[in-house]
Design goal:
This protein is of the alpha+beta class. It contains 5 helices and 7 strands, in the order βαααβββαβαββ. A 7-stranded mixed β-sheet has the order 1-2-3-4-5-7-6, with helices on both faces.
Length: 172
Amino acid sequence: MVQIRLAEAGEAELIAEISRETFYDTFAVHNTVADMDKFMAEQFSTAQLVEEFSQPGHSFFLAWVDDLPAGYIFLKNKSHQTLGSPSAMEISRLYVRKAFIGKGIGKLLMQKAIAFAEQEQKEWIWLGVWEHNQTAIDFYTAFGYEKFAEHEFILGDDVQLDWLMKKNLTRV
């Protein structure tokens, strides 16, 4: 049975662990060890996750399968200048552990994000995705997201390109 619930600040270490594990599993093959180590040390330390938990407008939802943490989604009450509206929510991370990929966890987390953004009466929900992560791009496109911009993403010392994708939540 899958349960998705709002994470608590005391679960920052668990989220840091899931972050390091899933990011490594997904991107290590495409990047140098030095760049991966630098990025993960900066972005996924427990201290960094505790800081993210403490920020107003930040929400983490954990997915559990029985008693096992399967993944999480990190949402920010944040817009992007090219959306033309301050009423937006960013999906900062949607990470699912390798053992749970293909079991509908990502879909449930995405549905939770959309429902939460609608509950917060947001006009847009948006995210960034690496331009070469076609599996993720296809996943987001299936949910109705469209590319609207690009931005640089720094992984260690490597400058990469992310697509920014958006979904309008007010269209009927």
